[in-house]
Structure formats: structure tokens, C-alpha cells
Request: fold
Amino acid sequence: MLNGQMTALGKKRSVIREIFEYAKKRSGEIGADNVFDFSIGNPSVPAPKEVNEAINRIVAETPSVVLHGYTSAQGDKGVRDKIAANLRKRFGADVQGDDLYMTCGAAASLTISLRALCNAGDEVVLIAPFFAEYKVFVQGVGAREVVVGSCPSTLLPDMLALEKAITPKTKAVIINSPNNPSGVVYDEETLCAIAKILTKKQAEFGTDIYLICDEPYRELVYDAKTIVPYAPNYYDNTLVCYSYSKSLSLPGERIGYIAVGQKVKDHDDVYAAVCGAGRTLGYVCAPSLFQRVAAECDGLTADLGVYKKNRDLLYEGLTKAGFSCVYPDGAFYLFVKSPEEDAYAFCERAKKYELLLVPGDDFGCKGFVRIAYCVATERIERALPLFERLAKEYVK
Reply:
């Protein structure tokens, strides 16, 4: 007898992947230049030059047997020490190399963290809009997701709803800033409010509640005034799940880390649980070469100017056409209000113009669509007249 849950997940891809596969099929039929695929957050700008320089230098200087051999299960010690030192320098983080666990990207960081923290029946709070796969990750460890809404005008957490959602069964709250799918950044006021609620509830219930920060977009902000607060500086029981996929344009290399700060309660046991969860999931010894590359290039970014230009072009064009969306300070997504209640129906209508968008239902927000603007700028310029034609279909 097969695992029914796993079979069902294998037979039905995420809505993002379904649209991505449809785009490939449609490209084969009418040509890729005629398909405007805004479905997937695949970086469209090259990795910074320092990445290739680091790869070449590391390959040249490191004996092959060492470079391509196993590292420690939690990652190379020198790599972890270098990244931790950078976190201390950049954010004043209370973290050492032995507090880091190198992972195969953000998904591995999240699934390991949830497996480490949760027992069957525990609850994990998700703040909508949220990355669609969070539900899969939570259910995969036998926990239950509890969805909390956001303020419609800002897409920041509804703090009253968050406080009501936390119960004695709450094990963790996941936040994602800059946010996928909205591009919204949780500012210091928001972090302080979340920390206050979690601290209060821990005392009220006599339990440990963890804040899991999913941070693949941390460096992707476009205005000098926009600051992404470092969450462990506001709430002690915080695990940071980081990925270099977006900042360094390395999604295919699958490299990231989990940081368990020194202030996490029962720190040694929590870190041991992370190591044990990585072991049970088979996530030991992240890719050796790219551990070293990540350490060399930590804190760098690809050319954010391209994404900023795309954001401004798309946001201005869509709002001029009559669409409504919350202004994104980071990541590379617009979360657009659907002109009709059924976002799936709107996305189907958009297909008439070969515009491929993702309905917001799986992100926990019905009536919205996500548009990933990590595409060639020319693609956006050619798509805007099509969006205008689409918008006119809803003018009465």
C-alpha cells in the first residue's frame, strides 16, 4: 500500500509548476517569444561576476578529492564560520559557525526546521499571503496549518487575528519578508508587534513558540530607505531559513542555511534537532563546491537595477490600465487584485492574450493573482498592451 498523501502530491503539481509546464508546451506550439510567462520566480539576471570568479578560484586552488568530497553533515566548518562572521558584521547577529546548518536551499531549510520543531498535532501559523508550498511542508511533518489574514490595504499581518490564532498547540509562526507573493517588506514596527504577541503567548501558555523566518529575498529590496529587519534581534526563539537562490541568481544550485541563534531557548537541543531532522530527510552535506561559493559571496547580489526597472515599469503600467495592487518594496512579484472574484477565471481569460499568471488562492488570498517580473524587460514592454486589452474587457 503506497502512501496516499505522497501519491496525491506527485500526481498534482503546485499551481505554479502547472502553469510553468503549460508555458513550455505553449512555447513549443507558437514560439517562446509569443508566450508571456509570469508564473515562476526564476531569476532572470546573471549571477554577480564574483560567483564565477569564486568558482574558478576554488576549483583551481582546492584539490579535487577535497572539493568534491563529503563535508561535515551540517556543512564545512570554515564555510559556516565565514557566513556567521558576516552575519555578526552585517546585523549584529548572536550567531557562531556552529549555529549554522548548511542546506539544499530554502525548501530544505524549511522542511528541516519544521521536522525539528513539530510533533504530530502541533499547529503552525501561516500569514496570508504566503508561499503556496508552506502547507505541503507543514502537513508533511504531521502538523496542522492555521491561516491568518493580512490587512487588505497593506498586506501586512492582521495582528489581532494573529494573536487570536495562537493556542497552546502553536509550535511556530512562519514569516516571509520580503514576501512571496506580494513583495511587501515587514518593517521594524511589524517585527516588534509580532515579537510582542509571541512573547506574551509563550508566557500565557508556558510553551515555546518559534518564529521561522523564510528569507530567500532578504537582499532583494530596491529603495535605500527600505530596511529588512533581522528578526532574531527582535525575538529570541527565531530560526532563520536562508537561500542564495535569489540574491546570487543560483536557484538551480540549491544552497542555503538554517541559523539557530544563541538566544534560542534550549539552543543546543534545538540545533541537535535540526541536525537530526536533516539526517532523517537525507539532507546532509549540502553541495560542497557551492557551500564554498556561498561563503565567498555571502551578502552580494545580482543586478537589482533590472528588477527595479521591471517593477516600476509593470506597476505603473498595470495601475494606469486600471489594475490595483499593493506597491512591492522587495522580491520580484506583484500581487494584483483580480477584476473578478474568481482569480482562476481571470487567469484563464488572460490566457487568451498568452499572459500566464498565478491565481492567489494557493497563496491564501482569493481574488488576487501573482505576477513574477523576473523576466526580460522587453517581455514586460511587449506584455503591457496585452494587459491593457485584458483590462478593457472588465470595463462596463
